[in-house]
Each structure stands twice: as C-alpha cells, then as structure tokens.
Amino acid sequence: MPPACFGARSHSANVAICIWAFRVAAYMSPMPPNRPLLRPLVALVGFVCVALGVIGAVVPLMPSTVFFIAAAGCFAYASPRLEAWLLSFNFIGGPVRAWRERGAIALPAKLMASAGMAVGLTLFALARPGVLALAAAAAVLALCALFIWTRPG
User: Domain spans of the chain?
Assistant: First the structure.
C-alpha cells in the first residue's frame, strides 16, 4: 500500500527537488501488472536510496532520512515485502512512519538540519561567492529551514 504522503526533510540545497519527487510518489498507485520491467527498476532506485541513506548516516552534513523516505516510497510501489523489510529497522522505520502519519520531524533532526544548513552556508560564504549567489543560497536554505520548523515534532 503506498504511503499517505511524502515530503523532504533534507538540509541540502536539493530540497526542492526532493519535495517534488516525494509529492509525486504520494500519488503513485500500486505497481501496474502490465509493466513488469518497471518493478525491478523502481526496486533498484529504492536500493540506491537505501545506500545513500546509510552513507548519509555516517557522513556529516549529508541527509539520511530523506533517502530512507524515498526508498520506502520506491519499495511501497515495487514490493510491499521490501517496504516491510526497510520499515522493520527501528532507526529507519520510526522516522519514516512519523513522516507518513503526521508529516512529523523530530526535534533533534530539526536541530541537526538547521546546524547543517548554517555550517553549509558559512562554508559557502567563506568561498567568496558573488553577492547574488550567496543571497540565493541563503534564501533557499531559509525556505528549507522554514519547511522543517513548520512540521510537527
């Protein structure tokens, strides 16, 4: 069964793309039987998202939960068994279920995302970009922070 809703809680500059992809995933129907090659492709994308999520759990400033949410969406579309497997891990399933049920982001995740955005913007500013580029990056990150902090906890 596909999830009720998806969305991004990423602290990267690609949040807009993630939000769009997750909103599209929210309206996906279960795998149609007349597209047998699509199932393995969607499952493969899900496994790539799981790998990126694991990397994000280890690498500073790289999001992880957003990739696990995307993987759960892919698995819900391709294989409910794979979705159940992913959600069986408490450290993955908990945040994904909270997002699906209430659109919730835990306070520690909000704090880490905000800190990551601040560090990222600071490092970007230290690279001495143009004023317009810095203003655009700050505006995008401010919108991302607004999105994150307006989600329930």
Answer: 15-149
